[in-house]
Design brief:
Shape: globular
Strand order of the largest sheet: 3-4-5-6
Number of helices: 4
Distance between the termini: 12 Å
Helix content: 40-55%
Order of helices and strands: HEEEEHHEEH
Radius of gyration: 19 Å
Largest sheet: 4 strands, antiparallel
Strand content: 5-15%
Structural class: alpha+beta
Number of domains: 1
Length: 201
């Protein structure tokens, strides 16, 4: 049975979680101000699809900022589904139950497992990544009813990846690290970036 991680380890991961969540929310707020504006006309209900299944964005997209021509740009978008648009067509009540419930359970479970000493170094690194991403998108859903996205990757006019945000990125990286940690076996590292003290059990 693994030994519980130290208070220092837990504090380090909580600080990382808060910092990544703050970064995610700040970049979303920036994209709202820099890449969109409030609509002047009457809005349709949040995330209520029309007869064609399309959603009326609550804010009007303005400029896009091209970072790499034909490949990467910053463009405002609103996501009523999960990461990368999953469950976008599901009823709103189902989205609320699934997203908020799953997010809360995932955050609590990961922090509990980390505190109890489960997993190795990759698992420890993945915890604040996944938890901060889930928390950031949960805040958006509580605040707005949808998630703000703004990173748009595409390959010229052919391949187009669903627009995403910092939270989606940290979740994706964190889940990949979780899978790699599982493949590496039960070896454990004390913290997100800290080796065990010399002579410790």
């Amino acid at each position: 049975m693994s030994d519980p991680r130290s208070m220092r380890s837990l504090a380090l991961c909580l600080i990382t979680l808060v910092a990544l969540t703050a970064l995610d929310l700040w970049t979303k707020a920036w994209s709202e101000q820099a890449l969109s504006r409030e609509r002047t006309q009457q809005l349709a209900p949040v995330c209520a699809p029309n007869a064609r299944g399309d959603y009326w964005m609550q804010r009007e997209r303005t400029q896009s900022i091209v970072l790499v021509p034909d490949y990467l740009e910053l463009r405002y978008a609103e996501n009523c589904g999960a990461a990368f648009g999953l469950l976008d067509d599901a009823p709103r009540w189902l989205r609320v139950i699934v997203f908020m419930g799953a997010g809360a359970v995932a955050i609590a479970a990961l922090l509990w497992m980390f505190a109890r000493g489960h997993g190795g170094k990759l698992f420890a690194v993945s915890v604040p990544l996944v938890a901060s991403g889930a928390l950031g998108n949960m805040v958006d859903r509580l605040r707005l009813g949808y998630v703000v996205d703004f990173i748009h990757f595409h390959i010229r006019d052919g391949f187009v990846w669903p627009t995403f945000n910092v939270a989606d990125s940290t979740i994706t990286i964190g889940v990949a690290l979780l899978l790699l940690d599982g493949l590496r076996g039960p070896a454990r590292t004390e913290t997100c970036a800290e080796q065990p003290d010399a002579g410790s059990a």
